[in-house]
Amino acid sequence: MFRRFFFCCFLAASLVFGQNTLSNDNDYNKKKSEELASLAVSYFKNNDLKKSTELLFKAKEYAEKTDDYALIARMNGSIAHQYVQLNLNDKAKFYLDNAIKQINRLPEGDKKKLLKTLSYLEIGNIDFDEENYQKASDYYKRSLREIELVKNPDEQSIYHHRRSLYNIGNSYYYIKNDSAEIYLNKALAVKSNYNKEINYFIYNALSQVYTGRKEYQRAIDTLKIVLKHKNDLDKRLLSDVYYNLSQDYKALNDQYQYSLYNEEFIKLNRSIRESEMKAISSAINAEQKDYKDAISDADSSKKNIVIISTAFVFVLACAIIFLLYRRKKERKVFENIITKLESDKIISAENKLEPAVEVQKDSPVQIPNSVEQDILEKLQKFEESEKFTNSKLTIASLALQLKTNTSYLSEVINKYKGKNFNTYINEMRIAYICQKIYNHKEYQNYKISYLAEECGFASHSSFATVFRNITGISPSVFIREASKNQSS
Questions:
Q1: How large is the average pLDDT for residues 468-486?
Q2: Contact status, residue 102 vs residue 121, Cβ threshold 8 Å
Q3: CA R_g for the chain
Q4: In 46-132, which residue ranges form alpha helices assigned H by DSSP?
């Protein structure tokens, strides 16, 4: 909030200064901003996010010295888009708010409608990234309504029309709406020579629709269309294509092709992560420059500047100390998890030789000793079989597998395991995936959604919630600490 306040002051000061120098420098600043933004797009397409981010901040500086609200909106929107790519959604929202303020100052017309389309698309992208797929879909539909009101569409308008259709189709896939394929095909049907790269994103989304219907070969054939243009692809898209191909071949039990594309995914994903970290560093440096400029432009005494600088340094120091403390605490939690996993292995091995120790004495359900021991033995085999990773598993289906009833099974789990059925299953699933991540380096490069599916959870969000509740840290933190162990 502190940094945001001063950054807003800086923006206001820049606009006033821009208006004062309008007569001399307006055209030059517009041209310079456009040139830098165009160059930033080129670097972005080459996956040089660091250079792209630096150029966008410079383009924004020039834009803010003009009276062109549309240009200022575009530069702030472009930075917001960049932050969305880096998964820094709070930062993206800040710059998107700045863009929307400028858009609202424009007179009604095609330019305003186009920029409103872009703002709705970016807001939708943020909601999509945060897995609020229904909200994302609503914003995408608002973007479609705006772009369809443009009276004289040019190539850019047609392109964003296609984007709106594609994003609706893509979000529909995630909310299980049967119209996903319809909207994606509508996007393909709109013919335009402007930014043909969007076709590759559409095909990738269509492949996921086919995979969801278990039409794995059709999904593979669709992705192979995209791979024909491998050298033209955005690296994040290429990473997704490799990942989706690996999963489709895995579903078809083609181990060779699965391994081939999985290795390509892991290798490319590592490169993307390194690039993103450089871009984040670049963005932080650019924001620090904005902050310093805001202080130098402020009409205040040296005393106030010293106070502000001291306060900033103090807040920054506190933030660093807090971050180090949290990292240390997370490391301790991680080590405790690994210790417990090793300990549970030993206990499990010992329990094969003797009956489990009862956790509860009182029991509302009376079970014959022979039946109780039979259920315990079958539970032991069940735990070793890893069948608990089946996402459709319920207490009723497990009782059926063990040839008993749900009352007896529930009572034995409560009595000997000291927990209810859901907790019992979830703890085994989390322990299973923790061991996979810790012992198999490739798992540290997989998406969280894949890890969730691997251990039996139906969704990314439920997996992340259960993981944190059981372990005390998030899956991403566990992966980070596990990767440190691998590299040390």
A1: 85
A2: no
A3: 27
A4: 49-63, 69-85, 89-103, 110-129
Crossing angle of helices 255-297 and 49-63, in 10° steps, is 30
pTM for this one?
0.51
Residues 6+ apart with CB under 8 A from 200: 226, 229, 232, 233, 237
Contacts of 72 (CB under 8 A, 6+ apart): 15, 60, 63, 64, 66, 98, 99, 102
Q: At what angle do helices 110-129 and 133-147 cross, to 10 degrees?
A: 170
Give the number of other CB atoms < 10 A from CB of residue 145.
13
Confidence (pLDDT) at 131: 82
Instruction: Decide: 355 and 373 in contact? Cβ < 8 Å.
Output: yes
H/E stretch holding 33 reads helix 22-45
Query: 64 and 94 in contact (C-beta within 8 Å)?
Result: no
Burial-class residue 234 by CB neighbours within 10 Å (0-12, 13-18, 19+).
middle
pLDDT score of 451: 92
Q: How many CA atoms lie within 13 A of 130 on its CB side?
A: 15
Alpha carbon 133 to its chain centroid, in Å, reads 12
**272 burial via Cβ count (<10 Å: 0-12, 13-18, 19+):** middle
pLDDT in tens, 266-277: 888 777 666 656
Cα angle 235, 237, 243 (rounded to 5 degrees) comes to 105
Eight-state DSSP code of residue 46 = T
Cβ(147)–Cβ(116) below 8 Å = no
- Residue ranges of alpha helices (H) inside 352-458 are 369-385, 395-401, 406-412, 421-439, 448-455
Q: How far apart are CA 42 and CA 78, in angstroms?
A: 13
Sign of CA dihedral 139, 144, 148, 150: positive
pLDDT tens digits, residue range 219-260?
999 999 999 988 888 788 888 899 999 999 999 999 999 889
Nearest CA-CA partner of 169 in 117, 204, 145: 204
Q: Are 389 and 432 in contact (CB under 8 A)?
A: yes
DSSP class of residue 367 equals -
Residue 391: CB atoms within 10 Å:
12
CA pair distance 378, 380, nearest whole angstrom:
5
> Amino acid identity of 363?
S
With contact defined as beta carbons under 8 Å apart, do 56 and 16 qualify?
Answer: no
Q: Determine contact, residues 85/282, Cβ cutoff 8 Å.
A: no
DSSP 208-236: HHHHHTT-HHHHHHHHHHHHTTGGGS-HH
Give ∠ CA 73-75-79 in degrees, rounded to 5.
115
Q: What is the mean pLDDT of residues 166-177?
A: 92
Provide the token pair at 252: 């078809």
| Among 246, 170, 313, 299, CA closest to 447 | 246
